[in-house]
Amino acid sequence: MESFSLLGSTGSIGTQALEVARKHNLRVTGLAGNRNIRALENQVREFKPKLVCIYDDTLYKDLKTNLADTNTKVLSGMDGLCEIAVDKSAEIMLNSVVGMVGLLPTLSAIAVGTPIALANKETLVAGGQIVMDACKRKNVTIYPVDSEHSAIFQCLQGNNRNQLNKVILTASGGPFFNKTKQDLQNVTVSQALNHPNWSMGSKITIDSATLMNKGLEFIEAKWLFDLEPSQIEIVIHRQSVLHSAVEYKDYSVIGQLGFPDMKIPIQYALLYPNRMDCPTKRLSLTDFGTLTFEKPDYDTFECLSACIDAITVGGLYPCIANASNEVAVYSFLNGQIKFLQIAEVVKNTIKHFDFKVPTGYGDIVRTDKSAREFAKELISKM
After folding, report:
1. For residue 342, which of 219, 240, 205, 233 has the smallest C-alpha distance?
2. Strands 27-33 and 51-54
3. Residues 358, 365: contact at Cβ < 8 Å?
4. Does residue 271 contact residue 1 with C-beta atoms inside 8 Å?
5. 73-76 and 51-54 beta bridge pairing
6. Cα–Cα–Cα angle for 52, 131, 53, nearest 5°?
7. CA-to-CA distance for 21 and 381, rounded, in angstroms?
8. Tens of each residue's pLDDT in the chain, 382 residues
């Protein structure tokens, strides 16, 4: 692989992906960001992509003016994201946008046969069935970028997939490991954003604090690896060194370990199957000394159990869980609700809707919209 397009280029995953591009002289054919014009302009001037998209339409004219002296075509909005997604000059598309925004560009890239390096959870959480069906029709591979799913993907290499017993998803436990509901009654935003191991965007960091992030990853794992929910075990591993593992029929467990740095799974997805020098630290097990593993507290961290329940029932419930969580997280960040009320919003929104199986992208969009509206109504009464 020598070229890729990058959606979400100004975010945490995007900027680290560009570090990998610099390291290995990869050509970036398309870049897309949300609102950070300065960062996006600098990226265009460095990597000289064919296309660039600013998702916020109101900033399109400013970006176009700023880049008037370049040969890069400036785009905006969802149409812009999808134009980058279908551009065949990219050998793979890395999708690292946050939220439901990522679903349609993923489907668009799959439709033209472009492989996906996926760091956008919502693509599979909300649209797992239609995405994986589209991949089968077009013979398109999704390379996971989440460290946990990348670890599972790596542990499956060279082994008979039919001999898999289960996967073991590790979770850091976030900043509130071993806390009780009573302890979390008055959690502040700054406390919730203080992750012990990873540097991430605010939304995903809050999801890590509630363990919603692990619930979303549970749903992703079901779709990525064609598993039953009963084949996925979650284990709290505070050091984030074992990124995940798999158990085979003979009860052998194979795990992938590495220094907690997202550049490792990003590079593996972009350069698969090659393993090359990565711009990160090497792992020293003796520096860490002790690795610990514990069971999650499903009673305190109810977002996690809500996600597992949603995918166990199936249908559009994972989409509803994701949509209501997005609304609740941003409401918490804006001071409208308390930390524990995030799970309350998610659970009550799921309960409000009847079971339905998605038949296409339109069903997912409509359900997502309805769930968001209901969640906002709930929050307004809190």
Report:
1. 205
2. parallel
3. no
4. yes
5. parallel
6. 10
7. 48
8. 799 999 999 999 999 999 999 999 999 999 999 999 999 999 999 999 999 999 999 999 999 999 999 999 999 999 999 999 999 999 999 999 988 899 999 999 999 999 999 999 889 999 999 999 999 999 999 999 999 999 999 999 999 999 999 999 999 998 999 999 999 999 999 999 987 666 667 888 899 999 999 999 999 999 999 999 999 999 999 999 999 999 999 999 999 999 999 999 999 999 999 999 999 999 999 999 999 999 999 999 999 999 999 999 999 999 999 999 999 999 999 999 999 999 999 999 999 999 999 999 999 999 999 999 999 999 999 9
Q: Which amino acid is at 14?
A: G
User: Which structure tokens are listed for 372?
Assistant: 């968001």
Amino acid at 234: I
